[in-house]
């Protein structure tokens, strides 16, 4: 019989797992787990050590132990709840940069169109803008490696273009109407990311702020936006949280404190471990504690968005308008792991000021939880508030006695159904194929002189997407294998004009131009603007309980 020798990795694996067992025992002791639980954990980790040792040594094919462990971790965490997650080391820095509010890179917004990386826009104040890189430039090579026509992904772009501040990357660009590639030696720098994507005055009194996520810089951005709007005469405020997936809870709490007076409760959280049981109250004078507020939410508004909306609703500070929010009421704590990976562990549930848990139900069927959007759509919830049934056992009261419900998301005070009458399958295919973005890039590059002295307000009021432009867009679609559909095109023509005007405006100016234009077809926004009398009534209403006592 031949003797099987252990490789170095086979020898190391039991040692690594033994260290993991020791760490597990130490963690258990730190949190004063009962002795029975410690024994269970020790036995479970030993079982994992046994299995991995046998697989690594005796399995018929060679295996990558790290990949196998990563897969096992992901499947294990799925069994806990839908939001506890494991982020491998190769993804952790990219994911974290989306919340940090800045990253090190070359400073471009990019898109991948027909397997080619396009510069959508150089970011203001970044190194690419300083070097003269333009919207529409194509990134062909990075440090000598071809990036066009090779199945490039977003991850590939991040890995190649991001890097430490001060490091240099050589990028070869193709510019329209120039035969030769342009070589840029770009010194990477800190690149700010913004989460307040739009801020403008709707009219002489109403200010609008679009918040796309809750990142490390969101609170400061919000304060600056509110201050600027007040200088311009704002007396009423719309906060748009539609499609905002959340982020840092602290940002939402601080924003709520700018809107709530006194010592109003903003949010509470409760977990198994006492240190995670906390309550957050308003405590400082805010920038906009008076004046009516309307918060816009929909099925894509989650987590920190729901904290802010719940605080406004339960304290009777303003009106919530739109559709029922996502329903994420679980709090994750990010834990850095030794290899650079990250564990986001659910450590508590959060509750709105009235005591509502707004986490929607979940079980061990991860796919069913993820398909909740489609289930809501099929059930008719996006089109009628009557399709939403609330359990009386989950009935709560706001500060002034209005009835609100827990059990899954924030139900708005004023429901606005999803409007699908203008959209069509053809328009969706145009935008999914990137034809619209490609057309907008080319159109702006070819017509820059037309917009040189035009303000955003002039653009909004005077510029119109012509029939000729729409016909050109159709041709871009055909190049991207989007077959023309005359019936859908005619049905959605006015809708398409607004969408294209918004995308062209974003290329010329910024996201404020995009939202100012596209909000003309945003039914939730349009209804909200008409409801400030209702928002004011809520804020000024007498406590219902006081009325009953009288």
From TrEMBL:
Record carries keyword Hydrolase: yes
Source organism, top-level taxon: Bacteria
Keywords annotated in UniProt: Hydrolase, Protease, Serine protease
Any GO BP: proteolysis
SMART domains reported in the protein's UniProt record: PDZ, TSPc
GO function term, MF aspect, one: endopeptidase activity
Any single GO CC term annotated in Swiss-Prot or TrEMBL for this entry: outer membrane-bounded periplasmic space
Domain PDZ: 92-176
Family note: Belongs to the peptidase S41A family.
UniProt protein name: Carboxyl-terminal processing protease
Organism: Algoriphagus yeomjeoni
